[in-house]
Each structure stands twice: as structure tokens, then as C-alpha cells.
Write a structure and sequence with these properties.
- The protein is of the alpha+beta class.
- The chain folds into 2 domains: about 140 residues, Cytidine Deaminase, domain 2, CATH 3.40.140; about 100 residues, Cytidine Deaminase, domain 2, CATH 3.40.140.
- The protein has 10 helices and 10 strands.
- It has a 6-stranded mixed beta sheet with strand order 1-3-2-4-5-6. It has a 4-stranded mixed beta sheet with strand order 8-7-9-10, sandwiched between helices.
- About 45% of the residues are buried.
- The structure holds zinc ion.
């Protein structure tokens, strides 16, 4: 277990430390808390709902990978079924800052890769930046999303983002996290990792460019983490598929030195491409990581 998580445990209320420590030390811990675990923590600590999530924020921030800023942000999203998903910011050295992942994006896409289709709440240890407010406005159920910060009352996303610009302004009905499938096939692809990248592309959200795309990362011990492209009505806050897969790996406790190979699948008869940026980001992480590529036709 990473040192930052051990340090974060000591910042939890005393009543939670032994229970949470046991879960964290279990090899299957994947930076989520089930509804049953939340109930256990509420009973042990006397904290409920948002108060419990605020108390757990140091654990989320412990997943931050911040070689540039050393500024660790943690976020916890709550799915409709009560599951909590942690997230933290990720910075990549050697590429442009647009490749950065914010904690809110990490927690949201972490929930997405585990099948959540709608979120009720997000709890963050710092005020969400403008970029993240816009990213959250793309979500299925954005109009009901509640934001909780340590020293503010809970407020709706739209209290933080008045007069919002969003998908509806561009005539788009699809929303991030809502079930969608793009009908892309991998029939003529033999490589199993590329097939998984196609699976990710199939459930990606790219209604603006049509560049439905997905990444699959294979680790040196054989785990595979998939990432779907998450496009945004304001374009710049879009989250590339490599980043979503990196988030999934990071939240499962994998560091970049465990990445063995990566596959990218994307629709090529669209208006944008992830190939150059994916290659550049991987080169910055480790130029020896092979990148497999499949161009798909929508
Ligand atoms: Zn942000």
C-alpha cells in the first residue's frame, strides 16, 4: 500500500481507523466503498452522509500523482446506489498541461469505468475550478448534482455554474455516464487488448466530434484497465481515453512503472484524433511502452 494512504489513515476519525485500515490492506480494495461499508462507517463514527464523506477526503487525496504542483486534491462521488468512488488529481511531466486530470474528473470517470450511470453528490477538499464545473455540467443528472466542500454548505452544481453553457446549447441529448453504445465492432481485430479498447470506445461519449475512442492498459501482472473518451460541450474540458484508463489503474493502486502495453481504438472517419497525444503522453511516461492502434469506421 502506498505511503500516502498510510499517512491518510491517521487523519481519519479514531473511530474509523481500524475498520478502514482493514479494508485498505485487503488486496481487493479498489478505492470504492460499498453501501454496506458506508453503513458500517456511519455506525462506527456517528458521522452520516456528507459529514462522513468529508472525513474520508484525505484517503481520496492520497491517490494524487502531482509531480508538478505537489498540490493534492481529493474528490469522492456518490453513485445513485450509495457506492462511494474516490478520485484524485494526476499530472504528467514532459507533456503540455492540458493532459492533467483534475480530482473531480478522476472520481467521476472512476465511477463511470465501474458502471455508475448517475451520481448524486460530489465532495471535494477544494473549491472546484471552472474547468471542473464545466466538466460536471456534461453529466447525466447534472441538474441534481450536489457539491459539498469542507467549509461551505452543500450547493447544487448550477449554484456554482450559473447561466451554464452545456450540451443542450449544441443540440446534444447524450449525457456523460448515461448508457450509450456506438455499435463499433472488433470482428477483424485479433489482439485481445485492442478488442478491449474497442469495447471502451463503444461506450465512450463523443457526440461533438464523433471520435468515439477507448484505451486499454495492460499491466505487467496482467490486469487490464479500460478508459473511455469523455467529451465536453466546451471541448477543452474533455477527458481523453488514455487519462480515463490511467485513472482506473491509479485508483486500483498501480503506478505507471507497471504499465506493460497500451491499446487505442478510435473512429477515424471523425473530426479529431487521439493518436498523437496518446503517443506523446506514453512517451513521456516511458518510451518503451508499446502502443497498439486500431482505426475504426463508424
Ligand atoms: Zn478542476
Amino acid at each position: 500500500m502506498r505511503t500516502a494512504l498510510i499517512d491518510a489513515l491517521t487523519q481519519l476519525p479514531d473511530s474509523l481507523q481500524s475498520t478502514v485500515s482493514e479494508w485498505l490492506h485487503a488486496s481487493a480494495f479498489d478505492a470504492t466503498f460499498t453501501q454496506a461499508q458506508v453503513a458500517d462507517m456511519e455506525a462506527a463514527s456517528g458521522l452520516s452522509g456528507a459529514a462522513l464523506r468529508l472525513a474520508l477526503l484525505p484517503l481520496a487525496a492520497a491517490y494524487a500523482v502531482t509531480p508538478i504542483s505537489r498540490f493534492n486534491v481529493g474528490a469522492i462521488v456518490r453513485g445513485e446506489d450509495g457506492t462511494l468512488y474516490l478520485g484524485a488529481n494526476i499530472e504528467l511531466t514532459g507533456v503540455q498541461l492540458g493532459q492533467t486530470v483534475h480530482a473531480e474528473q478522476a472520481a467521476i470517470s472512476h465511477a463511470w469505468t465501474k458502471g455508475a450511470t448517475r451520481l448524486t453528490d460530489i465532495t471535494i477538499n477544494y473549491s472546484p475550478c471552472g474547468h471542473c464545473r464545466q466538466f460536471m455540467n456534461e453529466l447525466n443528472g447534472a441538474e441534481d448534482l450536489v457539491i459539498q466542500l469542507p467549509k461551505s454548505d452543500a450547493k447544487s452544481l448550477h449554484a456554482y455554474l450559473p447561466e451554464a453553457f452545456g450540451p443542450a446549447d449544441l443540440g446534444i441529448e447524450a449525457r456523460l455516464l448515461a448508457d450509450q453504445t456506438q455499435g463499433l465492432t472488433a470482428d477483424d481485430i485479433d489482439d485481445p487488448l485492442l478488442k478491449q479498447a474497442v469495447e471502451a470506445a463503444n461506450i465512450s461519449h463523443a457526440p461533438y466530434s464523433g471520435n468515439y475512442s477507448g484505451v486499454a492498459i495492460e499491466t505487467s501482472d496482467g490486469r487490464v484497465f479500460k478508459g473511455m473518451y469523455a467529451e465536453n460541450a466546451a471541448f477543452n474540458p474533455s477527458l481523453p481515453p488514455l487519462q480515463v484508463a490511467l485513472i482506473a489503474a491509479n485508483m486500483a493502486g498501480y503506478s505507471w512503472d507497471k504499465i506493460a502495453s497500451v491499446a487505442l481504438a478510435e473512429v477515424v472517419n471523425s473530426t479529431v484524433s487521439h493518436l498523437a497525444d496518446t503517443q506523446a503522453s506514453l512517451d513521456a511516461i516511458n518510451p518503451d511502452i508499446p502502443l497498439l492502434y486500431a482505426g475504426l469506421r463508424a
